[in-house]
Amino acid sequence: MKLTTYLAWLGLVLCGASVDARSATPDGYQLHPGDVLQIVVWHEADLQGEALIRPDGGMTFPLAGELHAAGQTVEELTKALEVRIRKYVPDAVVTVAVKSVGGNQVFVIGKVNKPGEFLLSGPIDVMQALSLAGGATPFANTNGIRILRRSADRQTAIEFHYGDVEHGHKLEQNILLQSGDTVVVP
Fold first, then answer.
1. Which of 100, 137, 160, 175 could potentially form a cystine with 111 if both were Cys, beta carbons 3.0 to 4.6 Å apart?
2. Which of 102, 100, 101, 60 is nearest to 81 (CA)?
3. Domains in the chain, ordered, with CATH?
4. Which residues pair with 145 in a beta bridge?
5. What are the start-end ranges of the H helices in 2-150?
6. Strand-pair partners of 181
7. Whether the model pTM is above 0.85
8. Are 22 and 178 in contact (CB under 8 A)?
9. Contact at 8 Å (CB) between 49 and 60?
10. Strands 105-110 and 94-101, how do they pair?
11. How many CB atoms are located within 10 Å of the residue 98 CB?
């Protein structure tokens, strides 16, 4: 692991945020809409503060203006901020830390005891998401569960047969969920 990646990860941990394995790239955590960032420009008291990544993926910061942040790593965003801010503060040193990871969530709906949205604080698979939702109700069709996943403009449905996984069979269906996935329990 590169030192900068480790320091970015350490910054996430020290800020109380957790690293989501599905959002981690070899270069670090990928930012999502809803994430809150702590941005500091060293020795510039007026250039310190929080920035929320909006639903459209953008964010605003003084002197840097409007930037697209979603999908970038912390390191990439730091470099983009430094380039823009250095037009006004030539030797600016920018630090970006993820204060909260509000953009990483999955949804569990249908015949479960506690349907809703759940923040991804780490890698989570289908069985764990069902557990967070309080398990299936007695009338649920647990062998008809589907995971809805959207990528770009396309949505796919992934089958999940609870009974197979419960008995230790076909464990490959107990996939790791990605931010935005919806688990549907009919």
1. 137
2. 60
3. 3-101 (3.30.1950.10), 105-185 (3.10.560.10)
4. 160
5. 3-14, 74-85, 126-132
6. none
7. no
8. yes
9. no
10. unpaired
11. 27
